[in-house]
Structure formats: structure tokens, C-alpha cells
Amino acid sequence: MKLIRAELTKLTRQRGATFWGFLAIPLLLTMIACVLASIGAPPGSTAEVRAIRSLLRALSIAGNPIAQLFFAVGAAAIFAVEYRHSGWRHLVPRRSRSTLMLAKMAAFLIGAFVSLMLVAAGDILASMAVPLIRGAAPVAADWKAGASLAILLTVLVSLVELAILGASVALVAVVTRSGMAAILVPFLVALACAVAQTQFDGPVPLPAFAADTLRAMIAAPFESRAPDASVWTGLAVLLGWLAATIGLTLALFQRQDLTSE
Question: What sign results for the dihedral spanned by CA atoms 63, 105, 14, 190?
Fold first, then answer.
């Protein structure tokens, strides 16, 4: 816990990276959602709000390549800071390398979770509070049994997808020792994955495709149609990529010469 707190402290001291990495996306999505919600039912009327569907779609922002660019900024601030300031040589003798890297991953996941919670809070604010402020009476038209479970599972899938992104940023940071490369390479890979999704009709063993499929299956009761896919296949793809990226990062980091870093 001390190592995780230390990583979070170092992150908060990088105010620009903290804002752009974990706060910019929730702020932007909330502003857009508030604008869209303001173009709704007139004052004095009843506004039927599909709050659950809107919330599930908002939490799917983790799969958006542009959003992943912002999250990569936050991840690079965590994983590349020691390379930039030559701090590894002071840390490595005190703790095992795997413990240090896993503490950084935990700090990134905490930041990502907070960001997703802010996205959810902003979407709920826009869906329910804005119509109320305008004088309309918002009614959640799609609340049904299983809504809470669907929200929880969507958050978990998005967190796993962001964990893969964070591990990819860590991997590039270890290989290149560059914060800029750690941001740009995963972003370009995310763009390539998004393009690949549009070119293939069948399932593609990529994290973005697997996460989108799982989220679509979770949201099926609140949408008009459900995807024809296997839950276990999507879950296996996500966990496989997560294990591979973290494992490769740790393996390379264990063998890296850090006497001058």
C-alpha cells in the first residue's frame, strides 16, 4: 500500500498529466451530455430518460481510441517518470522490480476507476438533473432488474481493457525508455485495432473487439439487439492479452540495466 500511495502522490504532482489523463475525458463527456440533455422535453412535461442505456454507453468510452490517448497520457506519467528523472537506480535496490511495476499498475487502475466513476456521475447528472433544472420531470424508463449488475460488469470490462492499455504503455516505456513513445505507440495500435474491427465480419482476437462485444452483450437487455458471440471467448481474449502484456513487461523489466536510469 505504501508503494501505491507513493505512486499516486507522484502522479498528483504532475498536474497536467493528471488532468489530461484522468479528468479531461469525464469533463468533456459531461459537457456534451449536458448540452444534449438540455435539448429535451419542454418545462412542465415528463421526460422519459433511458438512463441505464446512456450510462452503459458512457462507460464504454474506455474502448474509444481518442479516449485511450488521454488515458495513455496518464499511464505514461506513471510508468515513464523514473526514466525521465533517472529515479530507478534509487528505487530498485529497496524493492523487487515486479513489486515496483505492479504498484504502478495498481496506481493507474485507481486513476482509471476514478475517471470511469466521474464519467458515470456526469452522465447521471446530465440524464436526470438537467431535465429537472429545466422544469421537466425525469423518469428512468429503462430501469429494470439486473441494471445494477449490468453497470458493475460494464465497469469491470472497461477496467480490464484499460489495464491492457496501461500494461501496453508500461511495455513501451520499458523498451524505449521514452514517455512520448509510451503514449503514441499504444494510441496508434488502438487506431489500427479500430480500423481492423471495421474490416472483418467475424470475431477478431483483439482487446478492443472483445471488450466491445462483452459490453454489447451486457447492455443487450437495454438495447434493441444483442450480438451473436460467446462470452467466454471475449473474456479469454481480454484476460489473455492482459496476462501477456503484464508478463512481457515484467520479464523485460527484470532484465533491464537500470544503473544509469
Answer: negative
Q: Which residues contact 82 (CB under 8 A, 6 or more apart)?
A: 88, 91, 261
User: CB–CB of 163/238 below 8 Å?
Assistant: no
Is there a contact between 126 and 36 (Cβ–Cβ < 8 Å)?
yes
**Predicted local distance difference test score (pLDDT) of residue 112:** 97
Instruction: Yes or no: say if 75 and 165 are a contact pair by the CB < 8 Å rule.
Output: yes
Grid cell at residue 176: 524505449
Query: What is the pLDDT, as a whole number, of residue 44?
Result: 54
Rg (CA), the chain: 20
Give helix 65-79 / helix 24-38 axis angle, nearest 10°.
150
- The beta strands (E) that lie in the chain are given as 46-49, 137-140
Query: How far, in whole angstroms, is CA 122 from its chain's centroid?
Result: 16
Dist CA 241 CA 249 (whole Å) = 12
In terms of Cβ atoms closer than 10 Å to its own Cβ (0-12, 13-18, 19+), residue 144 is exposed
3-state helix, strand, coil in the chain (%, to 5): 75, 5, 20
**pLDDT single digits (tens) 42-67:** 555 555 667 788 889 999 999 999 99
Residue 68 in grid coordinates: 485511450
Cα–Cα distance for residue pair 241/204, rounded to 1 Å: 13
Polymer length in residues for the chain: 261
